[in-house]
């Protein structure tokens, strides 16, 4: 087994609990924009529809089929028109308010701080994310994650998105390290696992929902809780 010197972490859905933080934000927006007054959907339906639409749009963004502005402009329009509102009924400012509020939420996955505190003295820790630079910085500060990491590599800063191996190669160059000295930890099989493999980097597939999807080829490691990293490292 390789001896690793640097660990590359994805942020959203791996350390920062995007779903929990997003749900809390959407609950706030549902009430602050009085969306119940339309009498077409409840808060749970709003959250489920947004989750579906946002996942779809992020997949298109990761594949380079839409840009950041299109993602932000479309997600609430598609969500709310999909729930029965007319385009002109979609509240002005709701997307901007989501973008402002959600990154300030602080939920992280269980054992995040304990595991990072354990790993920090032993390894160089870094973030590699397709998230937007300004937004990711706010998330990391709000959830007290920023102090663990030396480099934060975003798709904006290097011009490539995971799973493009050039994003990983850019990160390796910034850290000044060989791929065999690194281990990538992430939740997304395509972006994190396949992308790291293409760049010659070993991978840890973080699978907290215990998905039984067949993995071909298999990642180097698979974990269901971040605490399991300590058994690997």
Automatic annotation (TrEMBL):
Pfam family, one: Hydrolase
GO molecular function per UniProt: 5'-nucleotidase activity
Xref: InterPro entries: HAD-like_sf, HAD-SF_hydro_IA, HAD-SF_hydro_IA_YjjG/PynA, HAD_sf, PGP-like_dom2, Pyrimidine_5'-ntase_YjjG
NCBIfam families linked to this entry: HAD-SF-IA-v1, HAD-SF-IA-v3, YjjG_YfnB
Name the record gives this protein: Noncanonical pyrimidine nucleotidase, YjjG family
Organism in which the protein naturally occurs: Pontibacter burrus
Organism placement in taxonomy: Bacteria, Pseudomonadati, Bacteroidota, Cytophagia, Cytophagales
């Amino acid at each position: 087994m390789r001896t690793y010197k640097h660990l590359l972490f994805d942020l959203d859905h791996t350390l920062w609990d995007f779903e929990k933080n997003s749900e809390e934000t959407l609950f706030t927006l549902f009430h602050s924009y009085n969306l119940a007054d339309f009498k077409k959907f409840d808060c749970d339906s709003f959250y489920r529809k947004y989750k579906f639409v946002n996942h779809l749009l992020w997949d298109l963004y990761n594949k380079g089929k839409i840009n950041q502005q299109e993602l932000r402009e479309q997600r609430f329009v598609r969500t709310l028109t999909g729930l029965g509102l007319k385009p002109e009924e979609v509240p002005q400012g709701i997307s901007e308010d989501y973008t402002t509020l959600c990154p300030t939420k602080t939920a992280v996955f269980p054992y995040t701080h304990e595991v990072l505190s354990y790993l920090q003295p032993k390894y160089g820790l870094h973030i590699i994310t397709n998230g937007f630079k300004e937004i990711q910085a706010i998330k990391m500060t709000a959830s007290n994650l920023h102090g663990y990491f030396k480099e934060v590599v975003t798709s904006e800063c290097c011009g490539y998105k995971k799973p493009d191996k050039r994003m990983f190669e850019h990160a390796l160059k910034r850290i000044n390290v060989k791929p065999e000295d690194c281990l990538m930890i992430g939740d997304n099989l395509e972006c994190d696992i396949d992308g790291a493999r293409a760049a010659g980097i070993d991978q840890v597939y973080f699978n907290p929902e215990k998905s039984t999807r067949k993995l071909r080829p298999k990642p180097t490691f698979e974990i269901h809780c971040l605490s399991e990293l300590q058994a690997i490292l």
